[in-house]
Amino acid sequence: GPEGDSLFVRTSRNDGASFGVKQEVFFTTSGGGIGVPAVAVGNDFVAVAWTDRRNGRIKLRVSRDDGRNFGKTKVLARTKLSIDCKNRMTDGLVGLAASDKRLHLAWSHAPKRSCQASAIRMRTSTDRGADWSRTRTLTKRRTYGWPELDARGRTVVATVQSPTGGLVLARSGKNGRGWQDRLLKAPRGFSFSAADITLLPNKKALLTHVTERVKRNRLLNTKVVSRRSPDDGRSWNQPKTVADRAKRLRMAPNVAANSTKVSIVVQAGPLDGSPRNLFVSRLR
Fold first, then answer.
1. 73 φ, ψ to 5°?
2. How big, in percent rounded to 5, are the helix, strand and coil portions of the chain?
3. What does the radius of gyration of the chain's CA atoms come to, in whole angstroms?
4. How sure is the predictor about 4, in pLDDT bands with cuts at 50, 70 and 90?
5. For range 91-96, the mean pLDDT
């Protein structure tokens, strides 16, 4: 609004059939506004994280009554990453994942002003966000930032886009205490952009990302593909096409799963990135 920016949460308690009243979790009059938020639902709690662009602080609030009320704001980190190389728009581009009582927060780290992250950092809470581990490094590879997370039990997985045209995939089997990362390289003439990842039952995982075809530094077309992992993200099968309407798929996909049911949502529009429609695809 003209007087400031607010971050609201609305929670459904009946499987999405209806949503409760909006709860304001943060308000600022700073010209930079509020960073891109993330939300996670765990065992008897709802968590919301975001960046205060005024000072680069990574903040979080937790509700323990199904999203009706939220506790005090916690400051868990700070970043100097800018999502705009010219205008210096600070944003940690946070990622958030929950499993049972565990909550994992990741953000794009830059020790000095930069529009690329020098590392992805993270912290873990094992008691619904009351207490937090020390800061850990998810990956030291340079990326564009914006980690996507998912968790199941003690397993945590993450993906983030690399400036080299590939995807950085990271995995922890120790509740976030130790990480292994790898670079998923794109074929020659192609690059991988925005991605999302989810953990499925029976130690399986699903990765969804955009494959772009590039020629002489020009983006020709895009498509959305998915890859399955039989071992919680240690290895990945060959990609399968989710949506191949090349000139209509530019924006980031989002994937969600409930048991064996998986849905992928993408924005459609011209290649300049302006959205026109939302499409959903169910994997079989």
1. -75, 130
2. 0, 55, 45
3. 18
4. confident
5. 96
